[in-house]
Design brief:
Shape: globular
Strand content: 25-35%
Mean pLDDT: 82
Number of helices: 5
Largest sheet: 6 strands, antiparallel, barrel
Number of strands: 7
Structural class: alpha+beta
Amino acid sequence: MAQQEQRMMADPYFSIDYRAQVNLCPLADGETVPNVDTLEAQIPAPFKLISEVTRIDTNNARMLRNLDEHAGDLVEIINSQSRKIDLVLSYVLASEDDPAERHHTLTLGGGGFTFISPTHWANDSILRFKLFLPELSVSVYGYGQIKAQQEAQEPHHYRCDFTAIREQDRDALIRASLQLQAKQLKARAERRAQQDGPTT
């Protein structure tokens, strides 16, 4: 089986290269992955808050697209208010970040993320994670399972597959991945245009 096919079977969701901050915490002895109801009760309030704000922003954007061209001022006012809320939420979420558990992703998507770590993580071990994407108004609390990728070199490379995550958070990560891809493709096209120079 080709390596690309193996990756697609392991992670059927779209992933993108992106450096995001993530806290990783191994489960204590006797701790297990929660069911849907227990997970909902465990999620810290700031994560639920930013998820709800993101949902409202998405609905607002959908309604604004149906307005006529004279609604530009209204759109700008709503976007300005949204940016203010995002700044406040980013400050609140900062209290959830533990520097001792901080790592950074290499890729992320709706099925999980890859990351590097100077320490060893046992293959198939379960961890609790807090994923932060404040610039996209996305933060996710959930559980994942470690899959070693490249342990022969340091820092070690790992994949974390989601095992417990709310569906609305998965949807938010998928949308964020698509937004990031669009930005990256646009930046790549602009760089290529600059390199090619003006055409005569």
